[in-house]
Amino acid sequence: MPAQQLVDRVQSKIAGLPVNPSSQQLVKDSPPNSKYNLSSPNRRRRWRGSRRAVTVAVLVFVNLINYMDRLTIAGILDQIKGAFGANKAMMGLLQTAFIISYMIFAPLFGYLGDRYSRKHIMAAGVFLWSLFTLIGSFMSGSVENRNKGWSNPDFWAFLGSRAMVGIGEASYSTIAPTIISDMFVADARSKALAVFYFAIPVGSGLGYMISSHTASAFGSWQWGLRATPVLGILAVLMIVFIMEDPPRGESEGHGDLKAKTYKEDLVSLCKNMTFVTSTLAFTCVTFCTGALSWWGPSFIEQALQTIPEEHRMMNISSVSFVFGAVTMASGIVGVPLGMYLSCKLKPHFPRADPVICGIGILVSAVFLTLGTINCRNNIILAFILLFIGEVALNLNWSIVADMLLYVVAPTCRSTAEAVQILFSHAFGDAGSPYLIGLIMDGLQNFLNHSGSLCQPSEDIINSQVTLDNITTTESADFNATTTADFGAINGTADFSAASAQKLAAMGGSGVVAVNSTISAACAEVEYSSMLYSLLTNSGVEVLGGILFFVSAIFILKDKLICEKESTRKSERNGDCEVKMMLPRASPEDSLGDEMPSDDDSVPELTKDSRSTTPV
C-alpha cells in the first residue's frame, strides 16, 4: 500500500534526512578516523561551543592586561613624579595623553573593524602597545633636567611613549565587544559581556598591585612597567592562532550583511537617542573612574600623612596594594551583579538596563563621597564605603555594552563602539586626571597664600624656641641652609628678615620641631586641595544618573528600529525568513537540532496528501 510505504520511509530516516529510492544516503557520515568526527549533532554543538569559549577566554585575557597596563603608572605615580621632577598637572597629563591618542584613533579602528579582518587588526594593536610600554620602561629623568618642570625633555619623551600605547589599545577596545556580539544573543550575550568587562576592575586592581610590588622588589619604578609587555606578546600569539573571528551578525542569523557608508553609519547613530543618551551617561562614568583610579591612592596616602604616625591604622606604603585589592574585589562583585540584575529584571521590565545603570551610579555617588570624606577619620571604614561605591559603579560596564549592541545594527557596531569610546573618553577620563590635578595645584596655591597654612608664623617660631630652649647659632652657612630648606617646603621665598633671623638662631631639635610643624601644615593643605577636587566627581555622577533615566524613555523604540533594519538588510541580501530567526547554518549544520528536520513536515504531508489507491 502506498500509505504503508510512506510510513516505512519515515521510519528509515537517517540523521533526520530521508534516503532516496535507490537507498543511497544524501549525507555521508565522516570516516571514523577523521580528525574531527563531527557527524554527530551533539559533537558539532560541543565543538562550536568550545571554540566560542576559547575565543571569549582570549578576549578576557587581553582585556585584563589592557587595563593592567593602563593603571600600572598609577601604582608608581610618586616614584615617576620624583624621577621627572613633575607636578600634579604633569602627572595627570600622562593619563590624558594616553586617552587622547586612544580616543582619536578609535574611530579609525572602528571603521576598519566593520570592514576588514578583526583578528589581524587586534593582533597588530596589542603588539604596538606592548612594544611602546616596554620602550617607556627604559626611560628615566636625568638629574640635570629635574628642575625644568614643563620644559623637561625626558618627561615629554616618556609622555610620547604613553600616547603610542593609547593607539595600540584603541584597536582592541573598539573591536572585541563586537566579536562577542556575533557569537551570542540574548542572555548568553549578556553573560559573555559580563565576563569580558569583569576584566576591567580586576585588571585595574592588578595594575596597582603588580606595578607597586614589582618596582619595590627590583628597586626601580621602571620594572613596574615591564610585566604587561611580556603578557602582551603572549596575547598576540593567542589572537593569531587560537581566537575565532565569526561573520558579522552571525548570531542573529544575518551573516551576509554588508556595511553602509561611514557617513550613513554616523547619521544613524546620531538619530539613535538611546545610543546618544547612554553615551553621555557613560561619559560621566568614565570621568569618575578616571579621576578616582588615577588620584585615589595618592589622596589616601596624603590623608594618612595628616595623622600622627602612632594613630594611623595602615602603613602608607600599603595603600596602593590595598586600593588595588578593593578595586579588584569590587569588580568581582559588581560586574556579575549587574549582569544578574539585567537578566532577571529585563524579561519583566524591558527598560531595566538603563534604570539599573542610573540607580547604580547615584548610589555610587553617595558612597564614594562618604568614603572620600572618611579617609582621614577612619581608613578602614573609608575602604568599606569605597568598596560599596565601586561595586555600584561597576554595575554599568557590561550593561552599557549590551545596550549598545542591541540598539545598533550589526554592520555599525564597531563604529558605534568607536564613537562611544571617542566621546566618553574625550569628555571623561581623558581630561579628568589632568583637570583634577590642575584644580589640586590651584587650590593648594590658593590655600598656601590665603590661609598661610604653609608659611612660617612668628608665633610658631617663638613658641618652638621657647619650648625647646634652643641655643643660638652664629653660623652663616646654617642660616643660608635653613632658609633655603624652608623655602623649598613653603614653595615661596616670601620671608621677613625677622623670620630668617629666628630660623638662623635655631639649632638641633629646634629645626626639626619647626620643620615638623611646617610639614604638618603643608600636608593639611595638600590633603584639603585633593579632597575638594575629588568631590567634583559626585556632581558628575548625579548628572550621569539622570542621563541613564532619560535613555530608558527611548530604549524600546530604538531596539525595535534596530531589529527591523537588520531584517530589511537580510531580505535585500536574499536570506530567507527562517534564517533570520535561527542561527546561521552551514550544510553540515543541517543535521543539527537547531534546523527543522523532515520529521516536522511528515504529519503535514500525510494529512494533506491524498491516497493514490484506486477506489
Helix content: over 70%
User: pLDDT average, as an integer?
Assistant: 74
Give, in order, the helices and strands.
Answer: HHHHHHHHHHHHHHHHHHHHHHHH
Q: Helical stretch count?
A: 24
Please compute the radius of gyration using only Cα atoms: 31 Å
Structural class: mainly alpha
Into which percentage range does the β-strand content fall? Answer: under 5%
Q: Looking at the structure, what is the overall shape?
A: globular
E-strand count: 0
Q: Sheet bearing the most strands, described? A: none
Poorly predicted runs of 5 or more residues = 13-36, 455-518, 575-615
Distance between the termini: 13 Å
Please provide a brief summary of the model.
The protein is mainly α and 615 residues long. It has helices spanning 2-11, 41-75, 77-84, 88-113, 118-136, 153-173, 176-181, 186-218, 227-241, 262-271, 273-305, 319-345, 352-373, 379-394, 396-407, 413-426, 432-450, 458-468, 476-490, 497-504, 509-534, 536-572, 577-581, 602-608. The protein has 24 helices and no strands.
Layout: helices, strands, pairs:
Blueprint: H1 2-11, H2 41-75, H3 77-84, H4 88-113, H5 118-136, H6 153-173, H7 176-181, H8 186-218, H9 227-241, H10 262-271, H11 273-305, H12 319-345, H13 352-373, H14 379-394, H15 396-407, H16 413-426, H17 432-450, H18 458-468, H19 476-490, H20 497-504, H21 509-534, H22 536-572, H23 577-581, H24 602-608
Helix pairs in contact: 2-8, 2-9, 2-11, 4-6, 4-16, 4-17, 5-6, 5-9, 8-12, 8-15, 11-15, 11-16, 11-17, 11-21, 11-22, 12-13, 12-14, 12-15, 13-14, 13-15, 13-22, 17-21, 18-21, 19-20, 19-21
